[in-house]
Amino acid sequence: MATKSMLSSNSSSQINTIGPVFKFGGTSMGTIERIEHVAELCLKLKPSAVVVSAMSGETNRLVSLASEISNRIDVPEYDMLVASGEQVSVSLLSLALRKRGIEPCPMLAPTAGILTDSQFSRASILKVKGDAIKTALEKGQLPIIAGFQGVTEDGRLTSLGRGGSDTSAVAIAAGIGAKECIIYTDVDGVFTTDPRICKDARIIRTINYEEMLEMASQGSKVLHIRSVQLAAKWGIRLVVRNTFSNDEGTEMSTIDSPIEGEVVSGVAATQNEAWIQAGSSKNPKFNLANVFTILAQKGVNVDIITQSEHEGGMKINFTVSQPDAKLAMETLKNEFKDLKLILREDVSKISIVGVGMRTHAGVAARMFQTLAEQNIDILLVTTSEIKVGCLIPREKMNQAVQALHKEFISFSL
Amino acid sequence: MATKSMLSSNSSSQINTIGPVFKFGGTSMGTIERIEHVAELCLKLKPSAVVVSAMSGETNRLVSLASEISNRIDVPEYDMLVASGEQVSVSLLSLALRKRGIEPCPMLAPTAGILTDSQFSRASILKVKGDAIKTALEKGQLPIIAGFQGVTEDGRLTSLGRGGSDTSAVAIAAGIGAKECIIYTDVDGVFTTDPRICKDARIIRTINYEEMLEMASQGSKVLHIRSVQLAAKWGIRLVVRNTFSNDEGTEMSTIDSPIEGEVVSGVAATQNEAWIQAGSSKNPKFNLANVFTILAQKGVNVDIITQSEHEGGMKINFTVSQPDAKLAMETLKNEFKDLKLILREDVSKISIVGVGMRTHAGVAARMFQTLAEQNIDILLVTTSEIKVGCLIPREKMNQAVQALHKEFISFSL
């Protein structure tokens, strides 16, 4: 009864009593045996709420059914279809918990109050109304919530796009005032680089949010990028841990440069890049603002952007993720006449990331030098305060990762 | 525009403009190819709304996943699980319609306003709030609605039990003021008896609602019994038709004895019966009212009931459907001490049905005579104005169907 009255109050000191939100990914929910294991973990570790993904393979199965009929993914029925995968996971985990004497409160997005915009298949969470979840907590129930999905203001189901369940978990933590969100997955944490590419890769124990953001956006697939942004924004302690091991995992923190003298925390690489070159000598409307406004309206995310002169006109180079490449090309073709468009899909982006870069000069130069020694062409460059990224030919990706990891990380051990 | 303004009005003469509700069963939705065929049918025949079941096999797959964890089916997560099957069907048919230029409005139970009680896994529809469906119609959209599911007043998903999609379709027709509901299935209509058991079985072109009720409840699996009750109650013209043929199907009507001189319209048989005998010589609380109130509270549906003296006390015989047998036995064992309980599961019920019986004496006698000639024991008897039903040993079921069909139907051709 004490818990009940504390939870129903809104004073901030009492909100701190809300325990962590757990999130279990598709691999963790992949079989009945694994779901039973997840239920055991919940019984032992007592989260305040659990967010789940679809059983691994299920979303692909559903998407493949849809694609036999139509390639439309910007329509409500597509989101309704894929959302069914999480619904199954929520139900099965709830059954497994009830069997263990825990009363579950199975919740889909409309009940849990996960409001999104109406960009079907790639919706963004606007708000989590935590009321229904809190009511369940007050009743002593454990809310089991479908990740990856939301609901529009007019009641239509949406999906957040791949990996969105991480974001659901963090948004729910924020919505109910939880201070911690633990993402359970099938790896031990965030690695210095992809261990399949580089055998020297090791787990990063503590990583700065900004570094994690760069790692995530640069292709480290452990966490969905938006979940890291939200965790940083809301001050939620985010931890990545392995469902199937006792490893302590990786914890995100706000501390700058956690390990003294370590300039680069990680090497990230991404394969699904596409490089578009667009040039026009005539069209006065063809400028940076117009081009990227139009692409944004179509929901195309652009990464690296460069601009140069082109026969008296303009030339724009940019990269998009490969699934968006065709849409980007068509959009530009329809919008601007006489555009010279080149699409190159055999490229990768490789990045070094680290808050230590802020105080260390010459890191970019060392990266270019390392790539040059390996005879790897640099097609485009992008930099931020804590990252240097290069677009390179895809067949050189593994070679580049290994060389950069050796240069910046293995030697700093 | 004319249609729009007519639909948005509420006057009864204009409500008549609402076309039929179609319902497609699991076999009709069983593959992508079949879903495309269903979309073609909708394009051609222009229903006002479409209700769909899960793809055939899908509900079984989901139930089997659940049963690996737990046998609880009286919990919200069970209903949430099985409801996902219809969600997939709604989504896929919507995609197929949109591809054909029809704008679908995919709807799950909460959006469509299908309110039920909260008897999970066997919920009853209380009401269909047709507002959202009508709004979709006014916008020129075709509502595609998940059958088999509903929502409780406090927003939890429910399922109606097997075959419930027929009931969804009729309730939705009533909710939006449609006059006709066409159930598309994988057979040409309602047969005089099971054609797999009796090769002389033929399609009944017009069947009285009460006859259909008796046929449905006696094991003719073409239509869910509650859908027939609701159609009769609301005066909705109910038609059963084959998705894959041009047969005109079977139409339910209110006309008594549609075919002159035909006393028996059909022979129905059901295999999944269980026979329970309960006797007590001591317990004063053990009486008909108490026994069947307690069983009803547990949601056990009882069919045939007989009562007799038993060693100075009482003996009650009754049948339940086999899946309920264990629950019924346990309930009685817990409630009444010193009860003698016998469960027999190797029984079948066989019934002859026809509105013509009302005016023809001696039909029951002819039935008993026919069974006696076949040396088939009659274990229990149940009668209504338009039906005579007998519980018999299961191994004699096919023999009984063939003999009764020959006696009452084949010869009346």
TrEMBL record, chains A, B:
One of its GO terms (cellular component) is cytosol. Pfam families: AA_kinase, ACT_9. It catalyses: L-aspartate + ATP = 4-phospho-L-aspartate + ADP. This is Aspartokinase. InterPro entries: AceGlu_kinase-like_sf, ACT-like_dom_sf, ACT_Aspartokinase, ACT_dom, Asp/Glu/Uridylate_kinase, Asp_kin_monofn, Asp_kinase, Aspartate_kinase_CS. Keywords: Amino-acid biosynthesis, ATP-binding, Kinase, Lysine biosynthesis, Nucleotide-binding, Transferase. Signal peptide: none annotated. Substrate binds at residues 59, 86. It comes from Silvanigrella paludirubra. The lineage of its organism: Bacteria, Pseudomonadati, Bdellovibrionota, Oligoflexia, Silvanigrellales.
